[in-house]
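FORM 7B: Structural annotation worksheet

SECTION A. Query
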Amino acid sequence: MVKLKVGAMRKAKILAIVFSIFLIGCFVSTRSSKSPSEPDGFRSIKWGTEITTLKDMEKAEQDKSSKSDLVWCTRKGDTLAIGKAKLENISYSFWMGNFESVWIDFEGDENFETLKKELFERFGNVLESEELLKKMDKRVGEEPSTIGHVEQFYAWWGKKTEMTLSYSKNRHKGILYINSRMISEERRAYEKQKENEKRLKER
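SECTION B. Predicted structure
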């Protein structure tokens, strides 16, 4: 069983999701003017695919505090590269047993520039804004130290798929997060409902 830094990864994933929600609501104007076909999953696995049908997935060791309905996996024989950019690891998440997102870690300025170029060529350019990061820093107060590490941030939004690319030049580390828009929205609605039910029981 592959061991991952689940706690840190989970916190960063939550932050990336919060970034996406905030950006979609307030900065729709930063979408690319180019309209290429968007992916409906990742590496031949479509969003919503049942985990039981994928024989090459290995479950990662879960943090005790992590939610049981969200499972993280790695894929046997996965190619740790996108184009010419080298990757550190690729993690797949399944919510209620259905493929929801991909979390990709990479390191180094050269890999960042190569990956950014690859994504721009595939999905079009987006605007880079220092003011955008400043506003996110003020809006998202849960992890200010983590937000402060991110100097560059890009986002792509489609009808099926959302992507965020973030990079810290000081730490020389970056994250590419790709997720199913529909499943992520369903999961957030479900978690909100469960939280409301929990609060009612505690009253």
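SECTION C. Observations
The helical segments are 6-26, 109-123, 130-139, 144-148, 181-202. Confidence is low (pLDDT under 50) at residues 1-6, 17-35, 139-148.

SECTION D. Sign-off
Analyst initials: ____
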